[in-house]
Amino acid sequence: MPIFLSPPTRKAVSEDEVYRTLVGLHGHSPPREHAVKRTLMALLASAALGVCVLLISADWSTVEASQSASGKIIHKAPSQQGHNKGSLDPALRRSLDAAFEKSFRQSGAPGAIAAVRTPEGTWVSELGVANKASGQPMRADMHHRVGSFTKTFTATLLLKADAEGLLSLDDTIDQYIKGVPNGDEITLRQISDMSSGIASYTLDEQFQKELFANPRKVWKPEKLARIGIKDSPVFAPGKGWQYSNTNYIILGLVLEQVTGKPIGKLYQKEIIKPLHLKETAFANADPALPKPYDHGYTLQGQSNGKFADSTHWSPSWAWTAGGIFSTVEDELVYGRALATGEGLLPREQQAERLTSFLYGLKPNAPQRAYGIGLVNQRGWLGHTGELPGYNTSIYYNAKLHTTMAVEVNTDVNVGDCPPDDPTMTDSPHDIPCAEPSDFIFGRLSKVLGEPYATQQ
Questions:
Q1: What are the φ and ψ backbone dihedral angles of 38, each rounded to 5 degrees?
Q2: 128 has a pLDDT exceeding 80
Q3: SS3 helix, strand, coil % of the chain, rounded to 5?
Q4: H-type helices in 110-237, by residue range?
Q5: In angstroms, rounded to a whole number, what is the distance separating the alpha carbons of residues 344 and 19?
Q6: Does residue 243 carry a pLDDT above 90?
Q7: Which stretch of 128-132, 412-416, 419-423 has the lowest confidence by average pLDDT?
Q8: Which of 179, 180, 162 is nearest to 171 (CA)?
Q9: Is the pLDDT of residue 15 over 60?
Q10: CA neighbours closer than 13 Å in the CB half-sphere of residue 337
Q11: How far is the C-alpha of 169 from the C-alpha of 152, rounded, in Å?
Q12: Less CB within 10 Å around the terminal CB: N or C of the chain?
């Protein structure tokens, strides 16, 4: 059984630099997570790089259901928010509107919000409904669960702790937790970039059964870590790659250990408050969301093929791997800071992050790779997030100096998906299988001239 120890005793980059670093590294850049979805009725997902994991941020799943959007599509005029209040070119706004409307219809999602911020201004648009029962329309100020995008916050805290000398990325995990297989070899760096070989607790069949049998159950992070550790190792440290949510639960426990502070307070003090993210918070075990919020709709764990409203399911099982909620305005602010490091990390740690992508370790590749809590997908830096009922894609492109966020209130995939991967009944089959937020993101990125995906 793992033993959690006391901490061992031991005593920022511009946008142009970001872009030069990326180009110098590989001419292009890569992924977004391919966290895997469901194994129970679609509980296995494939992290942004093809591998298998579960439902906090994912990429492919399947069984048919009816169109989930109810009522008339509602399309509001784009609004300008935040520090960029200028107006985008009318032609660009019209193109974004058209691409959003078409991809939203194809996704079959109940509702979606998309936002783009360039040096010239900000475009924000909402489509569909936030609540299928009441028909309440989506609004840009709604709070939304961002799922595995939380990992970018956790990894940022890890890099900050490294900068402050509280730990080193090259520390082995046995300095903090005893009982992890290969714990004397696995480094915090390998845990953060998913090359540790520690299994994902979300792939454990017993965990899946318990989660969906009682989705309001409160889980302790130590219990989640033990489930993943029990099933480890998947491979030798540094010799493979698998998207594992256990990695980020462990990092949360380590960060609490070395700082002596609850993880929620660390997010608040080190990231949320400095960046003035007024509508962003860590849910921990609280299933409530501040008003206004969108309802989430999922097929995960639903053997009858009918959608479940997962809005108030306990987020405790996701903890530091997927427990944050936010709004698109905050996501635009944080998404830029994440990729540039401005107001977030010292230059040395940001450079460490931007050179951490595992291009040569399959399934990572030159066009898509994972690093220290960050995905590089063809030059778009950020992360995709998913929880049952929620899907989010937030990325920044250094070449365009542009941040984009897409929120969708379902995790049901779109496109030509495998037979065991749920899609909407009328989902188009002439496009590759994709998460709905990534699908919409891809269509909007083409309008901006820097495609996020090769096939869409």
A1: 15, 145
A2: yes
A3: 30, 20, 50
A4: 150-163, 188-192, 205-213, 221-230
A5: 17
A6: yes
A7: 419-423
A8: 162
A9: no
A10: 21
A11: 16
A12: N
Alpha-helical segments (H) within 219-374: 221-230, 245-259, 263-267, 319-322, 328-340, 347-354
Tell me the two tokens of residue 416. 């030509």
CA 157 to chain centre: 16
Q: Which residues face 391 on adjacent strands?
A: 386, 408
Q: Which CATH class is domain 3-448?
A: alpha beta
pLDDT value for 454:
58
20-34, 200-214, 234-248, 332-346: least confident range = 20-34
Model pLDDT, residue 431:
86
**Angle CA(232)–CA(238)–CA(244) in degrees, nearest 5?**
45
How many Cβ atoms from other residues are within 10 Å of residue 228's Cβ? Answer: 25
Let me know: does 329 contact 140? Beta carbons within 8 Å: yes
Judged on CB neighbours under 10 Å (0-12, 13-18, 19+), 75 is middle
Cβ-contact 82, 124 below 8 angstroms: no
Q: CA-to-CA distance for 394 and 294, rounded, in angstroms?
A: 17
Q: Which of 224, 233, 221 is nearest to 257 (CA)?
A: 221
Q: Is the pLDDT of residue 70 over 60?
A: no
Under a CB-based contact definition with an 8 Å cutoff, are residues 39 and 208 in contact? yes
CB 394 within 8 A of CB 404: yes
Asked whether the whole model's pTM tops 0.90, one would answer: no
CA distance 425 to 428: 9
What pairing do the DSSP bridges indicate for beta strands 421-424 and 62-65?
parallel
Query: In this structure, what DSSP letter does residue 133 have?
Result: T
List the Cα angle 439/444/447 in 5-degree steps. Answer: 140
| Tens-digit pLDDT profile for residues 185-221 | 999 999 999 999 999 999 999 999 999 999 999 999 9
Please spell the DSSP secondary structure of 276-309, one letter per residue: T-TT-EE-TT----PSSB---EE-TT-TTS--EE
Q: How far apart are the first and last CA of the chain?
A: 46
Q: What is the pLDDT of residue 4?
A: 67
Question: What angle, 0 to 180 degrees and rounded to 10, lies between the N-to-C axes of helices 15-26 and 328-340?
Answer: 60
pLDDT tens digits along 289-328? 999 999 999 999 998 989 999 999 999 999 999 999 999 9
Quick one: angle between helices 15-26 and 347-354, nearest 10? 30
